[in-house]
Amino acid sequence: MRTPVYDPHTTPQLSVCRFRCMLQDTGYPLEVYLPPAAGADIGDVEEENVEVDEGNMDWSRLKERWVGWAVEVPGEQPWIKQMLDTTPAEQGIAAQLEDLDLSNDSVPSSSTTPLPSAVHGKWPLPGAHGNYAGALIKIYDPNIAFRPGTAYEFIGILSRSRLPASSDDFLPPSIAQDSNETKEDVLVPAIHVLTEPYEVYPLKEGTLASVGAETGVPAGRDEVIDYLAELLPRGPSSTLDRTAAEVLLLALISRVTSKAPGSVPLGTLTLDLLLPRGSSSDEGAAFRRLVTGIQRVMPLVVNVELSLQLLSQHAFYPVSSHVAASASTGDSLQAGLLQLAPGTVVLVNEDTLQGGDLQDKGVRNLKALADTVRTQKLRYEFPYVSEDFGMETDLAFVVVGQGKSLLPVSTCSAARSWSMWLC
Prior knowledge:
By secondary structure, this protein is an alpha/beta fold.
């Protein structure tokens, strides 16, 4: 029996589950908790509803735990998700916990309702409105440290918990002023970690070797190149261009190998793919074909169709809730579109970007995108810090369009003749 995967709709409270996730916010302060006394009901303790007699409390028993917010890995494709869900990573004592289940009939199952509005902004991609898997991660070791944007698998006990104290700032002004939703009313899933966290992405060597032929995912190098060549528009001779497909493959698998402070990272290859004008690229058909195809060979893929609306309404970089909601205090982190797990392929469609008036937020988003492409560093917007403050990234960018890219790409490839040149 394998430890079940966390499902926000079906996993019962107080059961042991595993959650493969990206750490989105690691800036919460440490929590102080009172370990349960002998004979205490674990349900009361984990739901944090137990009444405490302060007069009889032994304050020397108080301890600290690390707390962060995690979300399901953005852009994770179904084929790799199925493989990792059915093939758990080796995590020491994790195997001993597989049959452990603390759930009982008196504990309600997880709700199928979306996450509360207080954490809607913690999902990087637009349009989710709380319909994503997310949870507080609570680790009973105050000396650990994690970076946002890293991906791990945690095994622990599922419960519900109130958001940390600084989470008042996640409530936008319209919610904070016009509704009865308060911090005390916001309960979110929480996973109390039992084992050593296992880093999932970037995938370890040999992980993909277990991908079976039944997944339909090309496995060999030559097979992948032939497959990518089929996705690309063909030249006048209607023959497949394996050279162009190989350059695309190199761009997809490029990773940061070294990076000195203030210098351009080594190991990345950003490709500008120039599509031919004509019927094949009408209404984004060529881009959609490319996205669908690459999703079958790369485990993490996020497609970004640039538009004035997207640039003006959705943040591309993480923003402090102090800045986002004009709240009084706090440093909690709202997610940005580019806050993604290491190894994610970002496909950018520039043909969807029409002319118009680009406001200040759009300019900042476009600058964040260009800076991340060039430096592999994503800025944070925090009060009283410089624009150099941010998180290190390891993303593969492929820009698609019918004209030369606005972004600082490394290599251009023209779809008509597939000649390459440095940009």
